[in-house]
Amino acid sequence: MAEYDVIVVGxxxxxxxxxxxxxxxxxxxxxxxxxxxxxxxxxNTHWSGGVFRFAFDDARDLEPLLPGIEDQYxxxxxxVTPYPYDDFMGDLMRVTGGQTDPELSDILISNSRDTVMxxxxxxxxxxxxxxxxxxxxxxxxxxxxxxxxxxxxxxxVGLSTAWFATAEAVGVEIRYDSAATELIQDSKGWVSxxxxxxxxxxxxxxxxxVVLGAGGFEANTQMRAQHLGAPLDQAKVRGTPHxxxxxxxxxxxxxAMPWGQWSGCHSTPISADWGQFxxxxxxxxxxxxxxxxxxxxxxxxxxxxxxxxxxxxxxYAKYGRIILNQPGGMAFQFFDQKTVxxxxxxxxxxxxxxxxxxxxxxxxxxxxxxxxxxxxxxxYNAA
Length: 383
Ligand SMILES: Cc1cc2nc3c(=O)[nH]c(=O)nc-3n(C[C@H](O)[C@H](O)[C@H](O)COP(=O)(O)OP(=O)(O)OC[C@H]3O[C@@H](n4cnc5c(N)ncnc54)[C@H](O)[C@@H]3O)c2cc1C
Description:
The chain has helices spanning 13-24, 43-47, 69-72, 85-95, 102-121, 155-169, 221-228, 246-253, 316-324, 358-363, 370-382; strands spanning 4-9, 30-33, 51-52, 127-129, 135-138, 141-144, 150-152, 173-175, 179-185, 191-198, 201-212, 295-297, 332-334. The chain is α/β, with parallel strands linked by helices and 383 residues long. The strands form four sheets. It has a six-stranded mixed sheet with strand order 8-2-1-11-10-9. 38% of the residues are buried. The site of flavin-adenine dinucleotide has 32 residues, from helix 1, helix 2 and strand 9.
């Protein structure tokens, strides 16, 4: 006899949404297993900016998510450009060079608006406009980047906190320090429970259904080396250390078919002065995404990508990997004084290197070929 109707492995956005959905759809006994201790709970969801990219046809479609927003930001909807299905799909196709999985993309985009509405309504996730991230004030009206208008109130921390509160309110049981290690199968091969390593040892817990929401292998150096290849094994992790690919491994161990692109990943430019893991309290403040207002060069003094290929939220997830492939796995972002007001506020978590002239600035940096760096800027400025 199964002890639980549903066991959900993980306690990030995906897992807690699944647990609440299970209760909404009639499951009476739902157990969430969180590998992390309580003070580290919530996975990358906690670290995230909590911004939701989703498709909508009319700016006013956002009204249920942002009630009364015009009291705070008059003419708010004048600055919101609709982001219909075709635009979202077009962006995905363009930034992936046509390699996105058409079936999965269709599921993602078709359900994106309803999912965010469900998160707000059933999940009780309060929302706010993504001020300071994607909006730019123009003549008193904030102009929003297409598709990036709404985020969870208080970003990832708020998103994670709200999910735990909702899950607990609907009766989900949550066990911390409890890592699922294996899927159990019955004699017919159906998944009938999980093996768990918890504070009191190892046990098997039966369930009618098991949902894997245990994140990816982003914090697992060996799996990054195996699937993404060097130098991504050396990448700094800006999220949880607990995502070690356990869910993927458990599913593959019982015969699940690998699917999708295993050699690609979301890798973003971050400040070089951060450690191997981003501190939990600083969440996503490691990102350095205002490069489109400046110039990036490597230690050889050369530019190596098009900073302004598109808006930063459509390029940054690829540019981290390109930077990691430069000598020393690093690059320098140069900004003219007149662009400083445009930089994202999170740049304030680093100390900038400042100089009055390009020559002086280059002389202060760990650039191997300083003559080349100056030449690169002279050519750039002359172009
Ligand atoms: C700094 C940063 C900023 C981001 N900003 C955004 C953003 O603004 N917008 C956006 O859409 N995305 C953003 N992302 C990506 C987003 O955070 C993730 O895509 C999302 O959180 C994934 O949710 P998840 O539930 O699948 O995984 P996670 O939230 O990572 O949750 C995985 C859970 O599984 C648990 N777990 C792992 N192994 C086991 C095991 N064996 N047993 C039990 N539990 C286990 C973990 O402890 C964790 O609780 C950001 C990511 C980072 C790191």
